[in-house]
Fold histidine kinase.
Amino acid sequence: MADTASSIRVLQVDDDPELAAVAVDFLEQADERITAEAVEDADSALSYLDDRAVDCIVSDYDMPGTDGLELLEAVRETYPDLPFILFTGNGSEEIASEAISAGVSDYLQKGTGTEQYELLADRIGNAVEQYRPARAVERAEDRLRELAENSNDALWMYSGDWSELEFVNSAYEDIWGQSVERLRENPRAFLDAVHPEDREFVREAVERLSTGESVDIEFRVNESEGYGRWAWVQAEPIVDDGTVARIVGFTRDITERKQRERELGRYRRIVETMGDGVYELDETVTYLHVNDYMTELSGYDRQTWRESDPSKFFSAEDIEAFEDAIRTLLSEDEVTVESVEADLRTAAGETVPIEANLTLRPTEDGEFRGTVGVVRDISDRKERERELERYETIVRTIPDEVYALDAEGHLVTIIPPTDAEETTTGYEPAELVGEHVSAIMDEDDIATGQRKIQKLIEDDERRKVSFEMETITRDGERIPNENHIALRPMEDGEFRGTVGVLRDITERKRRERELQRQNERLERFVGVVSHDLRNPLNVAQNRLELAERECDSDHLEQVAQSHERMATLIDDLLTLARTGERATDVGAVDLRAAAEACRDAVDETASVRVETNRTVLADEGRLKRLLENLYRNAIEHAGPDVTVTVGDVPGGFFVEDDGPGIPEDERDAVFESGFSTAEDGTGFGLSIVEEIAEAHDWSVSVAESDAGGARFEFTGVAFA
């Protein structure tokens, strides 16, 4: 048997089974390519064709029911080109004419000898050989047409001068927004569907194709969609004997690609202009891309990044942190971003603290393709964190309680004094956070605090305020505190609350109460001194004056001097008792004028040099008493010829004389009450000087003057 490509499958149709069987045998003997099968009527033949393929039908004409011509017509409806030979014993010119009109392939009349089958086999072979090439071409055209119609690209073919459209598929209408019928009527109508700004560009491409050039262009089309479509056209001229005979090409819709390109361009611009670094690392640990920020931050150019592995830029410890983050991203589906803090090594040999937010590059077939990272310089943040740690350390070493309130007065933070687990009110810090401050303060103190806070808000120059208040403990005990308040940083000018330091002043209040009791006892003592000593002295002085009128005696002069010493002693005691009180009547005092006025009050003969023009903040009466006592002290120890000088020192003033001075081993004792080296001194003068200085928060020290005399220096003085 010949191969399948050359074999001929024949269907023999004859109502006489014996004749049909003879015909089958003789055909297969006459041509080894032929394989024949027989059926007895037209219906059987049509059923056979539905199930199997044949290359030729040989049919008798005169058959019961449906004759050979009717079978031919039925076959032609489905198989218009299938070879059909009418092989009949009742032939006539009329039948032959009808058969030819019906599309029969050949007509042959039956004979009596076996030669007729050899002739029939030849006719079958000729008919099939003519049918097969045409059928192959037809099948190829069908396949091409089916392929073209199922293509998303518009396929087309023109004559070389664009005057005739030879072929175009239906995809043209979707891409160009123009009907195929219009294009057939006007082969150049496609130019009308091109964006006006691109039309001349496309027209020039058309002309180049006509001259034999290939074209590969992109442009906008589809007027009905506002020229929103992008088309890619590739076309080739077909040249025959040096002349462009035809032009073939395709048009592809690339709108989505253009949109992706625009979107990619936008993202690229964002990446390049954003204030953070961006890098892309593939699965081979190669840097594919870094933006400008990364090159500026590191000092390395893009080529260095692409040619280097991460170990050039990060330590082994930091690389391990990156790898841990990548493993987390790969193993936990719900995690899409991981953050890593690292130190970036720069080209200058320095390190920059960074925070990198990593995410995975899109995978292909589930395979890891690398990471993308967004890098932020956190130098400022790290510095703030270190500064915050320093402040936190300081705050936690403060022996006082520290707290913060929000704008509504709720506690947001409370830190107990150093080494304490509980707050001074007996609560754990966690118990108070979120509570309103009224949990540990009464209404009056809260109102006072609100007034103080309002003053801070209204006065930009004022940084803090203080007031005394009481906190209420868990047990209901009230603890006196000094509350130092400052505002929390504002946000857009909005008040955000306060921070404060609570200092337990229980001990101070106890001392104040004790001091108050001591002052009260001292006042009673002063009253006794003033009344019970002065009155008898006044009586003694009056009696002495009467005695001096009645008699003259040197003893009376000595009594008078004793009376004066007693009066001075009483005055000094009273002054000493009162000078310990804090100076409250403070104002601007001209130091030169005060120094000169005190000279006249003590001894007009004393020499006082004033070498200052400063104005000090002081209680003027007490300052003058201080100067007078120093003048008297100089006269008592150096005589009326002494020279006293008042001048400036950094942060204060001095008073010195040119007398004998104070021995160094006695300088610490000169301010003690009752200490005096003068025969008639009370020992209270310099004690009063020290008390007045302390009442002003001044410091006083004793030294030697340039002339060898005593020098008293006062520092910590405020100037007007």
Remarks:
- The chain has six domains: 8-146, 151-258, 278-383, 398-504, 510-565, 581-715.
- Confidence is low (pLDDT under 50) at residues 678-682.
- DSSP finds 20 helices and 27 strands in the chain.
